[in-house]
Every structure is written in structure tokens, then in C-alpha cells.
Design a protein that fits this description.
Blueprint (H helix, E strand, L loop, with lengths): L2 H16 L8 H11 L6 E5 L3 E6 L7 E7 L26 H17 L6 E7 L7 H6 L11 E9 L6 E3 L2 E2 L3 E10 L3 E2 L10 H14 L10 E10 L6 E2 L2 E10 L2 H22 L2 E10 L3 E2 L1 H13 L4 E3 L11 H6 L2 E9 L17 H16 L1
Parallel strand pairs: 3-4, 3-5, 5-16, 6-15
Antiparallel strand pairs: 1-2, 2-4, 6-16, 7-14, 8-12, 8-13, 9-11, 10-12
Amino acid sequence: MTSDKTDIFTQFRHELHQFPEVSCQEIETRKRIKNFVSQFNPTRITEVAQTGLLLQYGEDDHGPVTLIRADIDALPIQEVNTFGHRSSINGVSHKCGHDGHAAILARLASLLAEKPVTRGRVYLIFQPAEENGKGAEAVLNDPAFASIRPDRAFALHNLPGYKQGVVVCRPGSFTSSVLSLIVKFTGKVSHSAEPEKGLNPAYVMADFVLQTKKIQHPEPQSEDFALITPVYTTMGETSYGISAGYGEVHLTLRTRNAKRMEALTNQLLALLADLSAETGIQIETAYTEAFFANENDPETVEQIRQSALKLGYPYIEKQEPFKWGEDFGLFTQKYKGAMFGIGNGEDSPALHNDDYDFNDTLIEPAARLFLELIEREHS
């Protein structure tokens, strides 16, 4: 492989980085990906999940079926970097490295074009809307995906803070269960000079937030890990003669698995019921942006470990799940599979930071690792 060939995937990644699109809006992103990967002669290209793309390699209906997934959406974050490929879209940028994940999958497509799949089928899914948790569900519910039923499903995520190129994995939960909770507090508006004639939710909201701090177990090594993060609150109006009658608190909840999440939400709902009974404030709850924990199949993890070591890549087995969520967990709920991480560099800015950028040197080794996993299944 020549350096020129490597450069086209770096250039492709930079193009995606310059023109980012947030979840469910990846229309131009899909066009760019489709135009680029068409040169690698997939057996079939299918548009899925409204703004996603599915590539098929191989036509053997009797052999193994492998799915490799990359996400393609960006975040509503203003980029502060000044390099040549910086985002050209105000307030939107690739701050989780999904542009890099897509470039890795494109490089894998080129490798499959060079070494055709003769046994079974391989599917590459460029998945939209990972950041809001809607993309995996949209893929799985798409009729075009219904007949695929992969024997193995793989995905990766780049990992800032880890040495460049190190492969990180673990059996069981790899990423956390994540759920966002919206709590609405309804009281009664009154004159601010006579708050006793109304029902102001402020103190109930404050009490609730303070009590969540006591409920959580933020130590990631603990089996009872539960992180509760306040992310947004609103109450009343900027009219100083009015005592507020309505407010909201939004929280993000993180646990090791779905069972622990159920216990945590039940605990919070019981707390809210008590606060409502004590104060007369009406309380309603709603959930959004749910992410299932990535439950890595132990046999699949062993395949990743052996493949990484065969290629000479350093390998680390993580002792506890990552605290962030990833909607590939919906795939691992349904199919045998695993997500692994690859180090983005020890000095890399963290994910979702405004100065983050994907490390282009990961494109080639990550694509080669996916190819090795495919060859283990399909040789």
C-alpha cells in the first residue's frame, strides 16, 4: 500500500470534518460517503435509516455474516481548532471522531475490494444519529436490514487519553447504560410579594437535585456504579414581580447495565413521589436519549484480542466499563458482537471537547484489524 493511497482516506476524513452534520441530518454526509465508497465496488449499496448507508460484500447466502458498524454524525459544538480542515459549519463539529470512524470503514471497503469475500457476506453500515441514540434503532427497524441477521457485529471507538493505537476491550459491559430523565414541576404562579398564595417549585427542585447527589455512586469500579449529572434546568420568567409556578430539571443517568438503571430510576421516581406528596407540587417525568450498555460477547472479545496481537498491536483489557453511552449497545443486545476502543493518543483532547480532533494515523491499523476479524470468520 502506498502513502498516496493512505492519503486519500485522510483527505476523505478531512472532508467529512469540514462539512459536519448533526444527528438525523446527515444528508450531505451520506452523499459524500456514497460517492467515495462507490469506487470500491461493493456488491450492493443500500440507503438505510433515512440518512445511513449499508454496503454489502459477497453474495454467498450459506456462509457466515459479519457486520461492521461506524457512526457518521457530528455534535452541536463550535470548533476552536484553526487547522486547514476545521469545520466550516458554525456551531457544528466532529468532536467525537465519527469522521474518523467513517474513514476507517471506507478504508476497510477498499481492502475488501482488493480481497473479495468468497464465503458468506460482510456488511458495512455507516450509521447516522449515534449521538442522540436514535440511529441504531433506525437501522434495526429498517426493512432493508431485516434479513441480514449477522453472526458477529463489530464496532470501535477512538479513545483519547490512551496511547496511540492501543486496542482496549473487555468482556461484558464495555460502555454504560445511559438514560436522560426530564422532570417537570408544576405549582401555582403568584405575585412575588405574596409567594404564600402560590406554589413555587424552586425549593422542591433544589431539594431533588441535592438528594440525587446522595443517591449516586459515581465510582466507576463499583458494581453499584450510578452517576447522576444535572444537565439543564429552567424555572419561571425574568419578571421579578412574579413568583414562578413551573420548572424543569433534566438529568443524565449512567449505570453499568440495564438492571442497575431500572433500580436507579425506580429510586428517583420514589423520591419524586415523596416530594410531591409533601409539597403539593405536581411532578411529571419523561425519558429521552436511552443507550443500552454494550454487552460484549466473551468469545467475540477473544477474537479481537487474538487479532490485535497477531497484527502486533498492544492490547489492554479494561477492568470496568466506560462511563459514556454508545448506541451500538442495541446491536449487542440482539446479536453476538463487541465494541472495542483504539487509543487516540495520550495527549489528545477528550471526546466532546471543542479542541478535539481524530488521529488520522489510526485509519490504517483500525481498518486492518477489522479485516483480520473478517478473515477469521470468512476464510
